[in-house]
Design goal:
Structural class: alpha+beta
CATH class: Alpha Beta
Largest sheet: 4 strands, antiparallel
Radius of gyration: 16 Å
Distance between the termini: 25 Å
Helix content: 25-40%
């Protein structure tokens, strides 16, 4: 297949319960957060033609990696958790990281304890491959 177009993999609205917050009281009960993960391929992955999982990124493994990290400890800030998830995904990709030009991790805290905030609060982390 020709590579005159772009390819990306999007994992949208991966919801995970996590102990997250600035105060111990806020962290005590897990909160539901949502991750959106976007992987931009350098070129069409071989899986487009081969129909083989080995020729692309396994989104099940990525989702499990994020869940595992979120269940391991407590976090104070969405910025820190987002960066930790980015690093964990980078490690999980291993050699398949070479397929990706860059990827983005966006974390949305769906119900922050802030009066008047009804649409949640989000933070995004993007790394470019040099």
């Amino acid at each position: 297949m020709q590579d005159n177009f772009s390819c990306k993999l999007l994992i949208a609205d991966l919801r995970i319960w996590v102990h997250l917050g600035c105060s111990e009281q806020e962290k005590y009960n897990p909160q539901l957060v949502s991750f959106t993960l976007e992987f931009n391929f350098k070129s069409s992955p071989k899986a487009v033609a081969s129909d083989q999982l080995d020729d692309t990124i396994c989104y099940f493994e990525i989702a499990e990696c994020v869940k595992k990290l979120c269940q391991q400890k407590q976090f104070n800030l969405i910025e820190h958790l987002t960066a930790e998830v980015y690093i964990a995904i980078e490690k999980e990709l291993g050699e398949k990281r070479n397929l990706i030009s860059h990827f983005d991790v966006t974390l949305s805290k769906l119900h922050p304890p802030i009066p008047g905030v009804h649409g949640g609060v989000s933070f995004s982390y993007t790394g470019n491959r040099k």
